[in-house]
Automatic annotation (TrEMBL):
<feature type="transmembrane region" description="Helical">
    <location>
        <begin position="282"/>
        <end position="301"/>
    </location>
</feature>
<dbReference type="Pfam" id="PF07690">
    <property type="entry name" value="MFS_1"/>
</dbReference>
<protein>
    <submittedName>
        <fullName>MFS transporter</fullName>
    </submittedName>
</protein>
<keyword id="KW-0813">Transport</keyword>
<feature type="transmembrane region" description="Helical">
    <location>
        <begin position="248"/>
        <end position="270"/>
    </location>
</feature>
<dbReference type="Pfam" id="PF00083">
    <property type="entry name" value="Sugar_tr"/>
</dbReference>
<keyword id="KW-0472">Membrane</keyword>
<feature type="transmembrane region" description="Helical">
    <location>
        <begin position="194"/>
        <end position="213"/>
    </location>
</feature>
<feature type="transmembrane region" description="Helical">
    <location>
        <begin position="59"/>
        <end position="83"/>
    </location>
</feature>
<dbReference type="InterPro" id="IPR020846">
    <property type="entry name" value="MFS_dom"/>
</dbReference>
<keyword id="KW-0812">Transmembrane</keyword>
<keyword id="KW-1003">Cell membrane</keyword>
<feature type="region of interest" description="Disordered">
    <location>
        <begin position="435"/>
        <end position="459"/>
    </location>
</feature>
<feature type="transmembrane region" description="Helical">
    <location>
        <begin position="313"/>
        <end position="331"/>
    </location>
</feature>
<dbReference type="InterPro" id="IPR036259">
    <property type="entry name" value="MFS_trans_sf"/>
</dbReference>
<feature type="transmembrane region" description="Helical">
    <location>
        <begin position="337"/>
        <end position="358"/>
    </location>
</feature>
<feature type="domain" description="Major facilitator superfamily (MFS) profile">
    <location>
        <begin position="22"/>
        <end position="430"/>
    </location>
</feature>
Amino acid sequence: MTDTPRTPVPGAGGAQGQPRKAAIAAWVGSALEYYDFFIYGTAAALIFGRVFFPESDPASATLLSLATFGVGYAARPLGAFVLGHFGDRLGRKKILFFTLVLMGVSTFLVGCLPTYDQVGVLAPALLVTLRLLQGLSAAGEQASAGSMTLEHAPAHLRGYYSSFTLNGTQAGQILATVAFLPIAALPDEQLLTWGWRIPFWFSVVVAVVGYIIRRRMAETPEFERVAAEGKVARMPLALLFRHHWADVLRVTAAALYASVSTIAGVWALAFAADTVGLDRSALLWVAVAGNCVALIAIPLWARLSDRIGRKPVFIFGSSGSAVLMVAYLWAISTGNYALIFAVGILLLGVVCSAANGLQPAFYGEMFSTRVRLSGMAIGTQIGYGIAGFSATLAAWIAGPEGDNWVGVAGLSAVLLLIPVVAALTARETAHTPTADLGRIPAPEGPVTNGGLTDTVRPG
């Protein structure tokens, strides 16, 4: 990666070497954080129905288990409002520490929970509580890491550097899936007693490694500039909704794109294993392969967006994923492993990455530094909250037998075309200097910055 622009760029952000350090810290931190978050999704699809809802029939148990997965997304909007406020008031670095600790502790405790057979309804109640804490943590993670990398990056490479936040998220999914591969192969007796707990206990290591990486990060030069000028907003949310309400709505709609990973990674896994009768480990390997390809594809798509703009790349990724989701669910219904792998890698590894890796830059560039973290967090987490329940909605649409994949494919297509509409209405910001992004007035009045005056933008 290149630490400095080839020519001086206004708003390039960061001392020499800091963009690289911020990208690495965001990558590693996001990978570790989302390892914790995604092992829950895998366990919800394969295990929790039998451990925490054994009194229900298999279809209902799966539906209830996936609902607890969705609860984590429901908690995200609340976490976004709280952590977004403090992130724009206190800085990006402090929120990144807080989210790491909260995620690590709550995930470890999931692995310590008693089962339904041991304590009855208290077991799923505790499970939901810890899932809520996971959701609160995840609410601030991507927005904080995305803001950190975007504000450190050279202006002409914001897409590339900030994409490492989402690249780390993909790595976390790989780590989570790999952790479950040997667990899923265990006999049921061992799997349902102690085996499923091991990936959750590993979060202790996750938290320690994440702390070591993130304690070396510097606060972003953009936030420090705003703080030095005395322009940190006392009430970032009031400023956000006064001047950026339309951008928040756009990000919310665009964030429905997350339904592709929820349906493909959670509902489709349950559909393949429980309805079609495919091997659990084989489907987990599809996710691993797709995410490995995504590790390469995401920075390449992001770098392309630095050249040609955010909108065309994002629109291609979202619309292409809508088409491929239909093909992927059809492939699973055929039971053909080769076809499943081919379509799954194309969807999860290549096309999905076109939109996925752009999120920090595309969303973050809609807002000024003074409200960037709260704007990204609130917009994405409301969208993710809706998308998080797409697996539950898919299970309901699939019916008692869980075999109506055509209906689920239709749901996926609708949820993935909404982000296309949102992107079409957005401004193109790829070549806007960092200091000029999302200009809004400061409390003291108009502020001249690099020859430009802050003015209220249209919503």
